[in-house]
Amino acid sequence: MRQRKIFSRLILLIFVISNFSFGPSEFAQPTKKVIFDHDGGIDDLLSLMLLTQMDGIELIGVCVTPADCFLEDATISSLKILKLTGHDICQVAKGNNRAVNPFPNEWRAQPMVANALPRMLNTTENYAQLSKLSADEFMAEQIRSSVEPVTILITGPCSNFVSMLEKHPELKVKINEVVWMGGAVDVGGNVATHKHNKTAEWNAYWDPIATNSLLKQQLNLRLISLDVTNSVPVNLTFLQRLAQQSEFPLSDIAAQLWATTINTISSYEYTYFMWDVLATSYVNQPGLFEAERIELDSSIELPNEGQTFRSPGNNQWVNVVKQVDVDSFYEYVLYLLEE
Ligand code: AGV
Ligand code: CA
Q1: pTM for the full model?
Q2: Domains detected in the chain
Q3: Of 192, 218, 261, 320, which has the fewest CB atoms closer than 10 Å, so is most exposed?
Q4: Catalytic residue positions?
């Protein structure tokens, strides 16, 4: 398997150079310290798996937001994934936040399937890795004790992070970048509930007050919004490629997790996207992405509660990612799962 990984690293390198999207020096980046705050969806769990496989990333904590999941299930999944990937020091902390606008229960129950997969059942989680602190306090502790500035990756609502900043504003200077899968700027949203005008993205809508506060923080903030995630659906061509490498345990688990998402057909949305997986890839492959610097605001009221929109002159500058090299992104994900 090692040999095959070396071979495929070569192929990836050739692929990447031929696309002129990033050079070989990208493989020798200095280590980035990352805190990952996720909300337990299928693509959040896949993101955690991928993060553990990235060279140059040191995962210094995992926080769970009880949004697109049930908290206990997502905590167990996180512990199991860390165990499976040999990350036996990294701790997991549970968020104690409440939704302003909760996710539908069918969506929250969907990732329960993760803990029923054979390889996950055969992995016993280590509760010694569960932090006694709430997610916001745990996050503060990890930032405070880090010598270097920290990158925060958020793939659910930003409530834990905003609550951490409100309690410990002095830690802001130790944050290198915040990468958030959230928002929809120049495209439609994916919230289609009663009375909403469908301009908001779900993570931004779940806690619209936190979203609004995040935009005001003057941080180095990067949104991986629906503007770019719309270009990376989970499709059968990709799943076919993944199936071909299912002798690798992580590819096998990932293939099973993604298979549970392809029947995502509600009355208004037909596809499961790689929303969070795309945001996670950004952390280690920024060269694949193109962003626009935009002054952004958000709404805290119906009919557009949680909408993120342009607000020229408000001085709330945010990097909104608009494009990604789609082929290189899918290749990178396949490469990471060869383990
Ligand atoms: O809006 C995208 C966010 C991502 O963080 N989530 C799913 C991803 O984890 C909410 C969401 C939108 N549509 C969904 C979602 C769907 N059809 N099923 C489950 N979650
Ligand atoms: Ca998510």
Answers
A1: 0.93
A2: 2-13+40-336 (3.90.245.10)
A3: 218
A4: 39, 44, 68, 107, 155, 203, 275-276
